[in-house]
Amino acid sequence: MKLILLLSLGVSLLAQGRRTRQTISDSEIKDLSELLYELDINKASSSELVIDPQILVPDSETNTQKDLSSRPLFKYVDEASLFSKPTFSALLALLDNYQKQTGQAENFSSAQLAEQDKFLQETISNTGIGRELSTFMLRKGLYGSQSELIQDLKMMWFGLYTRSKGKMDSSGFEHTFLGEIKGGKVSGFHNWIRFYQQEKNGELNYYSHSFDGPWTSYPDILGMQFNWDGYFKQVGSAFVGSSPEFDFALYSLCYITRPGKRCRLSLGGKALSIQTYTWDNSSYGDGKKFIGSAYPATP
């Protein structure tokens, strides 16, 4: 009798877990995104970041591969102010750990693996944005503790899989935050800090933009055309002026609650969508899927 009761309880709890996941409504996600927007105290101010978008092209002309902008996108970045913040420095430390070409296996030293842990600690454990995301995930029954969430984030974002030639050459983090070269073109690349760094180093040439979000302060969203190390990106969308924890939290929220779908958010009363993709060719844990990509969807 006790065994039957225990089994019934287990089935009931599993059912509750499934119902909990299903009861995360679009309005709850929008409310949380507004709260995370308000909590982004590390975002750039107008005095810390000045951009020069220049030429706006229609969607029909995003593939012309013409450099229509004579000046860089980033006119001024106050590195001393922004990049000294713990989450910015934690992200910057990761940006030289990867091979941009797919088909080349990624191999990390113990120090580089520690940088991944540092990034997760700084963005999730040590910011209001990360703590609020954790509180939401725990309250909805998706994770039992913040440490469990962080471990899952580490696997879904930093876990390696193969995009080319059977090599363990890619991850959701590399694809989204750094970008890759695959099939003769740029794949991924959805982070403004990486964009600025590569443009500053002379490795990226900004061509034009096809979308500029309705926000008049940071974070904003741009859809950009550019050439990276000789390879073209037709539309690379990214938040601009946001903190690393803001990008990471919104992408993670959308991937966990709306994997592989459009995730509808609200920032400052203005609507936007995040598109995520699952990586379906391999998995981790009990059949969980790695992140394939995540980015702001532009019309």
From TrEMBL:
One of its GO terms (molecular function) is hydrolase activity. PROSITE patterns: ENDOU. It is an enzyme of class 4 (lyase). GO terms for cellular component: extracellular region. The keyword Hydrolase applies. SUPFAM superfamilies: EndoU-like. Residues 25-299 form the EndoU domain. Pfam families: XendoU. It catalyses: ribonucleotidyl-uridine-RNA = a 5'-end dephospho-uridine-RNA + a 3'-end 2',3'-cyclophospho-ribonucleotide-RNA. Keywords: Endonuclease, Hydrolase, Lyase, Manganese, Metal-binding, Nuclease, RNA-binding, Secreted, Signal. Residues 1-17 form the signal peptide. CDD domains: XendoU. Its main location: secreted. Its cofactor is Mn(2+). It is found in: Secreted. InterPro entries: ENDOU, EndoU-like, EndoU_C. Its EC number is 4.6.1.-. Monomer. Belongs to the ENDOU family. This is Uridylate-specific endoribonuclease. It comes from Scleropages formosus (Asian bonytongue). The gene is ENDOU.
